[in-house]
Design goal:
Strand content: 5-15%
CATH class of the largest domain: Mainly Alpha
Membrane topology: Multi-pass membrane protein
Strand order of the largest sheet: 6-7-8-3-9-10
Subcellular location: Cell membrane
Number of domains: 2
GO molecular function, one term: ABC-type oligopeptide transporter activity
Shape: elongated
Bound molecules: adenosine-5'-triphosphate, magnesium ion
CATH topology of the largest domain: ABC transporter transmembrane region fold
Distance between the termini: 72 Å
Main location: membrane
Radius of gyration: 35 Å
CATH architecture of the largest domain: Up-down Bundle
Largest sheet: 6 strands, mixed
Pfam families: ABC_membrane, ABC_tran
Amino acid sequence: MYQYWLRFFGLLRKHLFGGFVLLIMLIIGNLGALASPYFLKVIIDKVFGEGDFQLLIQIVFSLLGLYVLRVGANFYADYLYTKISNKITQELTEKLFSHMLKLPMFYFKVNSVGSLVYKINNEVSQVRRAFTGSIISMINSIITIVGLTVLMVLLNLELFIIICLLYPLLILITKYFTPSIKTIIENTRKEESDFLAFLTERFSNVKFIKLFYSHEYEGFLMKNRINRIIDLNLKSTILTSGSNNLSVLLLAFIPLVVLVYGGKQVLESIITVGTLIAFLQYANKLHEPFRNIVSLYVDLVKTSVSIKRIYDVLDEPIDLESASDELIEMGEICEIKFEDVSFAFNDKQVLNKINVIFEAGKKYALVGKSGSGKSTLIDLLCKLIKEDSGSILVNNIRLNEIKTKHWIEKLAVCSQDYFILNGTLYDNLHYGNSSVNKSEIDAILDQMGLSSDDSDTFSSKTLGETGSTISGGQRQKIAIARALLRNPEILIIDEATSELDSLSEQKVFEYINNQPTIRLVIIISHRLSSIQFADEIILLDEGKASEVNSIKEHISMKGGFYKLFKNQLVNSEVARDM
Ligand SMILES: Nc1ncnc2c1ncn2[C@@H]1O[C@H](COP(=O)(O)OP(=O)(O)OP(=O)(O)O)[C@@H](O)[C@H]1O
Ligand SMILES: [Mg+2]
């Protein structure tokens, strides 16, 4: 755990000067507050004891000066720690977010959106709260305790030793409770993060819940989750409050012990009344910082859990794309070759030593049963996942050696799970295409039939989360328009025309056919109408690319393709022409 804290404090490196000034301000602010009991002793013993009025005036002015200094120091410390803590947490958020985006696709397949949001939002907030609250209070408390210790030792060593005998007990109490508190906090975090994941999933699929009329069942699931969180919170409160209150009880003994032992010394004229009163005041002041440390300790344990969860993500190895700076940039694409490429999800062998060649200037259709690995093959081609064995060669260069940024610029993918921003149509089309101008956008909208689909308001209204305010076909048209605006060399359409009416689909393919900059098109579809533009059809079956032919060859062979499309072929023009 300590190594996580060390790494976290490593973030302070950039703010060393500010941190140093902050420490000085905190020292001034805290030690200034400790001066008054000492002055009280001097007033009782010297001013009243010896009748020195001049000294009283000097003390009053000193106290006034000290007060002004403390206020100034406290104010500047507040400003500084807010600034430093915000900068550090902002840096941490940025670091976490950009690291997460670089993680392999697989990470996102096994971690829910809610748990990722929780990490960026709640865990980082806990760290920020700790910074602006507990860490600073901890430093304040430590400074106060050190100051009090020095002052009490100077006032009366014997009384101080008596106090010290009680403190090890405090440490023992805290140590006894900590491991259980830590486990409960870890469990609570996990439960809360799952809870957020549950909510995100439910609200993203509310239509499904309505269609299954499963409100009651969802309410039951929610209730169970809430009960588990309440249970954990109660356990945590019992432990933290138990340890806090035991410590408070122990701390309450200290001034009483000082009163008895010190009172006896005053009666025996070993110490003055002023010394006893000042010592008692210091002993009472110890109460607060010690109590703070005990309760802040729990908060710091919570923060430790957050820091660990944050660094666990930061320690996840990032994607192959960032592996090296010495990757190759390449020219125009002539050929993409899959050589004995295999890929498995856990134990499931999806692609098994597959061999396929895509040549520039051609349009390919990738077909196969659901789950045959079509989208997986495209993910490999887009460097979203990495092959287990074999190699993907682009112009005879291994894909892994090509700079991802450079490679992705050549591609445009309309995938099955395309992304619609909760922004306007223009925001969506500009995403990743910042250099395109309005006339290019208008031209493509016209081509996609989007301008005629909709009134003027369509272009200015927001499309809702995941495009919830527009139709499925409109969403697909936007996704295709956005892909085409990239001016790609390779265009991949993975089931992204499935919701278009046949006329719109035909217009889209005609447009694609007339784009001279597109050198290679790969279409994945279960619909014959979508693949009939293809020059070659690749059939994926049992992890292999079993047939690579033109559509007519496929039909005459009466192989896997024919079986797959048999029903659709009955009324198709292609089949009739044969
Ligand atoms: N994250 C994952 N974890 C485990 N298995 C997965 C994962 N993603 C996909 N698979 C499995 O990999 C296989 C291939 O999936 P893929 O999405 O490539 O199929 P597909 O040919 O595109 O199917 P469809 O036509 O239905 O889109 C499927 O059997 C699927 O269950
Ligand atoms: Mg698919």
